[in-house]
């Protein structure tokens, strides 16, 4: 078998890259370790930057998003019971869109299936060969048989635990990491959201987030210790804890109900450098991870895909490798700014087990500053809606 680009991973980065390439007539094959149903069952991101929405439109999958996505002009930060709205629209002229990662993934899978582009789900033991040379290959097991695809390029879109970054020789890659001493316990429930906009709340009991998927479906998170087990959290315990952490008026509007999903995600900041190794390119979570506090993970996957798609288009249409050569530097410059923003939001809003009274005063001072300075709020707002590509 032969194709132009082998894409490893059918998460949002792999599917979006595949869709953009296919529309440009660039042949590609997706190899995904899990089943499509499994990929769709993972409840993750909920907030799309306008740049991500533009890219989904460019990929031809913006229709349901335009109909069902919820445009948000702002969100709120709560600190020790005080609420501060961040007026995204007023401060930046832009909005974000609440539309679940599950829906983005579904739209991309539907478009790929409609176009009849090749995808292998439940592809086992994917291995990369000769990506440092001119003729890379990817082998995998499908339905009990070993297959091999020769290609021009490999796109490593296989997430943090994928095989692509792990295939790079240790001496060729440098990694930077911060692991936070807590996770987020998330719960999905078919009840109207507690507030019209997202509320990120810092409290003496830890962080909580009130988010949503639609007018009738809410997504809530509470900060928990790293060793916490999801089985220890009944729905009742979750809602009691959530209400304790958010401002009173928000707590009063939280409507409990049986959870549709409940899971714990650890928080981590991680960057690999570079993102290119010969003919292998890493995009999305394969190359970097941010804690979810800034809502940046999926949006960074989209900006990586934008740079990589433009570079591949330029290679095939204009016979220029300038974009491919610039890919890693361009993507990383945007990635690091989102890593900084996500880290600073995480520091501001979470309770760190080792924090001193000094640290707590600094966090309070930072929140006070946000409530008093238009410049400080504008900085939060412009990062939240996404820095330019
Ligand atoms: P994914 O989604 O992890 O997809 C990678 C795919 O690769 C497959 N794979 C393999 N396939 C073949 N062979 C192998 N050896 C393979 N190894 C892995 C995997 O099965 C998978 O299908 O990475 P991608 O596409 O780069 O997308 C990244 C996003 O999923 C991620 O950044 C976001 O979900 C992060 N995130 C958020 N991002 C936002 O922009 N806004 C948010 O509001 C937001 N909230 C969140 C989040 C992530 C969370 N968790 C659970 C980590 C909230 C949470 C709780
Ligand atoms: C979500 O709705 O899942 C969500 C929203 C905002 C975040 C993280 C997660 O910062």
From TrEMBL:
InterPro entries: FAD-bd, FAD/NAD-bd_sf, HB_mOase, RIFMO-like
E.C. designation(s): 1.14.13.2
Name the UniProt record assigns to this protein: 4-hydroxybenzoate 3-monooxygenase
Broad enzyme group: oxidoreductase
UniProt superkingdom: Bacteria
Record's keyword terms, sorted: FAD, Flavoprotein, Oxidoreductase
UniProt KW Flavoprotein keyword: yes
A Pfam entry, by short name: FAD_binding_3
One of the record's GO molecular function terms: 4-hydroxybenzoate 3-monooxygenase activity
Gene3D superfamilies tied to this protein: D-Amino Acid Oxidase, subunit A, domain 2 (3.30.9.10), FAD/NAD(P)-binding domain (3.50.50.60)
Limits of the FAD-binding domain: 2-342
Keyword Oxidoreductase: yes
Matching PANTHER family: P-HYDROXYBENZOATE HYDROXYLASE (PTHR43004:SF3), TRK SYSTEM POTASSIUM UPTAKE PROTEIN (PTHR43004)
């Amino acid at each position: 078998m032969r194709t132009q680009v082998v894409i490893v991973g059918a998460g949002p980065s792999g599917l979006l890259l595949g869709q953009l390439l296919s529309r440009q007539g660039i042949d590609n094959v997706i190899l995904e370790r899990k089943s499509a149903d499994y990929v769709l069952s993972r409840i993750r991101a909920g907030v799309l930057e306008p740049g991500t929405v533009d890219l989904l439109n460019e990929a031809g999958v913006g229709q349901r998003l335009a109909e069902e996505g919820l445009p948000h002009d702002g969100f709120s930060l709560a600190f020790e019971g005080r609420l501060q709205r961040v007026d995204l629209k007023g401060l930046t002229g832009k909005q974000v869109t609440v539309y679940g990662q599950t829906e983005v993934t579904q739209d991309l899978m539907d478009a790929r299936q409609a176009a009849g582009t090749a995808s292998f789900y439940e592809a086992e033991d994917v291995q990369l060969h000769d990506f440092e040379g001119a003729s890379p290959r990817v082998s995998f097991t499908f339905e009990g048989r070993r297959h091999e695809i020769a290609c021009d390029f490999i796109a490593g879109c296989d997430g943090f635990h994928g095989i692509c970054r792990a295939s790079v020789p240790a001496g060729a890659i440098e990694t930077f990491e911060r692991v936070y001493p807590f996770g987020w316990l998330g719960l999905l429930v078919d009840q109207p959201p507690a507030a019209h906009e997202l509320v990120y709340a810092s409290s003496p009991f830890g962080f909580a987030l009130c988010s949503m998927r639609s007018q009738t479906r809410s997504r809530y998170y509470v900060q928990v210790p790293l060793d916490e087990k999801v089985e220890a959290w009944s729905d009742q315990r979750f809602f009691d804890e959530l209400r304790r952490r958010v401002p009173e008026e928000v707590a009063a509007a939280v409507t409990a109900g049986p959870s549709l999903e409940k899971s714990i995600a650890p928080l981590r900041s991680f960057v690999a450098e570079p993102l290119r190794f010969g003919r292998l390119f890493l995009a999305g979570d394969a190359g970097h991870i941010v804690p979810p506090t800034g809502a940046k993970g999926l949006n960074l996957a989209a900006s990586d895909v934008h740079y990589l798609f433009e570079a591949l288009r330029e290679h095939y249409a204009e016979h220029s490798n300038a974009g491919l050569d610039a890919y890693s530097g361009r993507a990383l410059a945007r990635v690091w700014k989102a890593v900084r923003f996500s880290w600073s939001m995480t520091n501001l809003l979470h309770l760190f087990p080792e924090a001193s009274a000094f640290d707590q005063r600094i966090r309070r001072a930072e929140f006070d500053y946000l409530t008093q300075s238009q410049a400080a709020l504008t900085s939060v707002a412009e990062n939240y809606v996404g820095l330019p590509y």
